Amino acid sequence: MEKPRFKVIIIGASISGLTLAHCLDRAGIDYVVLEKHHDIHPQLGAGICLLPNGVRILEQLGIYTAMESMFFTDRFGRSFSCLERRDLLKKLYTELRDKSRVHVASKVVGISTDEFGISVETEIGTVYHGNLAVGADGVHSIARSEMWRVAAIQEPGLITDKEKSMICAEFSGVFGVSNPIRGVKNWQSVTYYGEGLTILVLPLRENSVFWLVISKLDRKYVYPNIPRFSRGDARCICEPLASTSIWADVKFGDLWERRRAFNMSALEEYMFEVWHYGRIVCIGDSVSKIAPNSAQGASMAIEAAAGLSNMLRKLINGGKGLGKPSYLEINAMLHRFNRAQLQRLEDIHTDSHFLVRFQASNGLLARAYACMAPYPRDFMTDGIVRAVTGAMILDYIPLTGYSGKEWRPLTMGETLVRAKTYYRFVRLLSVTSIILVPVLLSWLVFLQFPI
Ligand SMILES: Cc1cc2nc3c(=O)[nH]c(=O)nc-3n(C[C@H](O)[C@H](O)[C@H](O)COP(=O)(O)OP(=O)(O)OC[C@H]3O[C@@H](n4cnc5c(N)ncnc54)[C@H](O)[C@@H]3O)c2cc1C
């Protein structure tokens, strides 16, 4: 009789979940994907930029070539690619070899786990049995909540209150897709620095432009009290910006008038320390989320899926998908995975945290930043290069074609010198303005009212 195979239950069929499905398929590991929505690729009005680290893995999986015709190419050659988010999801789904393993309208409501296996229950009452549950279910993750619940029973205090209150938001984003406008060429991205807000414009293909208005919220909100926004809220932010010139003779109103879809959400930022407990592990936005300015969210979700499948494949009978590792072996593997992900993400979170605040600052500093922004031209590139150089790949599929070879990354030394110089410059400017502004004001007052 055939031995039962090791089975992974993936919760969420978005970027992390579908990428993991591809990785497991290529590793010969059994899996099933449960998605709460009926539609895997809804029109949410969002675009997505994949950086070379994400693209390289999709290329290994044979999906990048399939999407290539949709991509827009800029100074990074093929390696920096922007497209509509729903097109990426559509490709990830249609390229799956066995779509019968993806179950839509299957909202997960509970997970039970013991030493021998895992049971995942959906709202419609179906129970799926397996050996490992992977939460790829985004910010409001049920997998994460269930992991915390199980940990609280078995190891009280492991997940601290500080860890649980880590999700917070200081910025919101209105994002939309518009028909193309004259004045923004299809290789050109635009960043507009306003008072307490940033407008990012990225042409996707010949027939669409993705834009994002990032603004500061009135205060820092902590989950679960982070506000939800309506399209009415989005209008309140966008309509007053209609006459704002964002580039040459292009006004924001030109984009707004041509919008095909738009939406608004809080931009949460967090990185949890603990990504696994027992037979539950979380990846992607369920455990780590960065502001969209650095465009690393999706690429890091893809990397996490690849990193997990590398380790799983090694653990399960050297890639034959037949062995049943013990509970302790699974735990040790998940611990190594967790540690590797935290190491990988640390700098990316720091850079992204800085970037969103830098781009959406207000007052005198904002003006100074906006004037300076065009000059340290390589700063953005350096951040991107720094994030890409340490990237993970699938270690069981060979790299092909142009994957990383056409693009010479800066050496670590070069990158650090440039980044550090720039940070020092920005800090110096902040400190100088804090000292100089009061001195200047006192001097003006003195001129007005001499003693
Ligand atoms: C406006 C905006 C612009 C962005 N731009 C970029 C960009 O340019 N580049 C970039 O790299 N990143 C970008 N990001 C971030 C990127 O979209 C995310 O990091 C990425 O989508 C993470 O994917 P995920 O699969 O982990 O989670 P999600 O995309 O949130 O997917 C979670 C999935 O789980 C499902 N689910 C949730 N709960 C359940 C449940 N109980 N049962 C079953 N299924 C469930 C959901 O329906 C969903 O399909 C942007 C984000 C925003 C908001």
Automatic annotation (TrEMBL):
Pfam family, one: FAD_binding_3
GO molecular function: FAD binding; monooxygenase activity
Protein name per its UniProtKB record: FAD-binding domain-containing protein
Family that this chain belongs to: Belongs to the paxM FAD-dependent monooxygenase family.
InterPro entries tied to this protein: FAD-bd, FAD/NAD-bd_sf, FAD_mOase_fung
Keywords from the UniProt entry: FAD, Flavoprotein, Membrane, Oxidoreductase, Signal, Transmembrane, Transmembrane helix
Organism from which the protein derives: Polytolypa hystricis (strain UAMH7299)
Membrane-spanning residues: 384-404, 425-446
Residues in FAD-binding domain copies: 6-88, 131-318
Lineage of origin: Eukaryota, Fungi, Dikarya, Ascomycota, Pezizomycotina
Residues in the signal sequence: 1-21
SUPFAM superfamilies per record: FAD/NAD(P)-binding domain
